[in-house]
């Protein structure tokens, strides 16, 4: 069976008259045959004719004369819309696919391939076909790297006389007019450039702008998407900066603002120097008859400080009061089960009230209060007393009200400030200042004295050459004797370093009324050595029914003493010789540190049994007044030789 070119029908002869069989072969003559339709994959919508030159408006870098034809009668269509199946008025409209195929097949013979170098073009040496005029191709034209060269160059017999030999690449899928093997499927009729030169490389699609002309536009980011991307990055950077820089600054400023405006009547919010106090150290409401007090041995003490709490509605948040401050913390060191909140303390009816409620606060089931004069009001030596009505009932155990004093170098409730400081009162350089007292038997679990009298030069020490600490003296810690169902008061003092078996020298201790007062069997543990006596109380001195006075008189130093009172009667007394040298341990001192007040109401199984079924809430500890008497006024947190405020200011991180 004979085939004429690619079709079974007789081909249309477009050759000029008397041209012979070689009319479309390399020659110097002009081209008389019509050009094929412009390939449909041209991206530019319009092509315009400039005289004899066909010029694409997007190909400005190229010379217009580069594509001129020698024959003025031959040119590209003047105007056409480039899309599949749409033809301009300058081109014939082909109604059927078969007609299109016939037109293409008879226009370009595989026997005589078109020569792009001499076939009627002028200065056409750099590109291989007119399809290269377009630089934007459709992205669906995917060509393989190795085209079927046999289709283009395999010699054939005469188109009109010999049997048509179909290349292998055409046998795979005739319907698709696939000119390449295996993968690429491009319509031959719509992509004629693939017939002319198999080495044509298909550029990327128009979205990627692969040509040099548009290369600079690849980096143009002033678009909606570019501005949105840049804006998003700027927003994220600003957000991170706000979280790690702006927010902490805002919190700091807000905290300073709140402190400055929480008490309009206060002069300032920093620790208040007593010289700048808004009222005198002695409360004007203190009756004149209590401006002096005589001690048991006949000494006359004069009042140096008093607070009668007669003004109702006082609050004790930081900065609210010149002498007192309520803490906001959990006192974990005593295993207390309540949270100390400043809101639990106020003044009402002429009394200071500390209220213990049974509701959750900071994940604890109870809320109470602790009032301190730390770093605001300190004293050294003299008589300290307070009139108190204890909370609850004297026959029900569970509450732990306390009125006590502690050295100002340590702040109660802040463990970092008391580590290595509490309850040391020692001025000797020996094994007593070392961790665990250098004893492997476990007598001490303390880390060693932080401020001994023997230190290296330039050490962080509040007063080099002197042993410094934060001893504790308890004026009253109330509980209940369950065997007699009577209230009782523990009056004690804590020391470090420790005696063997925590046993003091009882020869230098005195109990005034052994029927009401006895030595406490508890003598301490590996964290403290305790000297304590227990005194029975009247169960009427509870819940606001009646008040009783609890006081302490002491004289600092190695020759000093401590004496406790309930009412006007002393309960017991100890001298400094009770904690004198003992074995490897030297003399412990009656506190020479400036001491600060603490008043609090707690609950802890470590101190007293809690009778859960009998306790009633809320429980209120009431204080009528607090007074201090001294022979020589020493109301300061910086007594001579024992400064504290400078050290606290430099190392506030450990204390606040």
UniProtKB/TrEMBL annotation:
<dbReference type="GO" id="GO:0005789">
    <property type="term" value="C:endoplasmic reticulum membrane"/>
</dbReference>
<dbReference type="GO" id="GO:0006078">
    <property type="term" value="P:(1-&gt;6)-beta-D-glucan biosynthetic process"/>
</dbReference>
<feature type="compositionally biased region" description="Polar residues">
    <location>
        <begin position="7"/>
        <end position="30"/>
    </location>
</feature>
<protein>
    <recommendedName>
        <fullName>GH16 domain-containing protein</fullName>
    </recommendedName>
</protein>
<keyword id="KW-0472">Membrane</keyword>
<dbReference type="InterPro" id="IPR005629">
    <property type="entry name" value="Skn1/Kre6/Sbg1"/>
</dbReference>
<feature type="region of interest" description="Disordered">
    <location>
        <begin position="1"/>
        <end position="37"/>
    </location>
</feature>
<dbReference type="InterPro" id="IPR013320">
    <property type="entry name" value="ConA-like_dom_sf"/>
</dbReference>
<dbReference type="Pfam" id="PF03935">
    <property type="entry name" value="SKN1_KRE6_Sbg1"/>
</dbReference>
<keyword id="KW-1133">Transmembrane helix</keyword>
<keyword id="KW-0812">Transmembrane</keyword>
<feature type="transmembrane region" description="Helical">
    <location>
        <begin position="226"/>
        <end position="253"/>
    </location>
</feature>
<keyword id="KW-0961">Cell wall biogenesis/degradation</keyword>
<dbReference type="GO" id="GO:0031505">
    <property type="term" value="P:fungal-type cell wall organization"/>
</dbReference>
<feature type="domain" description="GH16">
    <location>
        <begin position="284"/>
        <end position="634"/>
    </location>
</feature>
<keyword id="KW-0325">Glycoprotein</keyword>
<dbReference type="InterPro" id="IPR000757">
    <property type="entry name" value="Beta-glucanase-like"/>
</dbReference>
<dbReference type="GO" id="GO:0015926">
    <property type="term" value="F:glucosidase activity"/>
</dbReference>
<dbReference type="GO" id="GO:0005886">
    <property type="term" value="C:plasma membrane"/>
</dbReference>
<keyword id="KW-0735">Signal-anchor</keyword>
<comment type="similarity">
    <text>Belongs to the SKN1/KRE6 family.</text>
</comment>
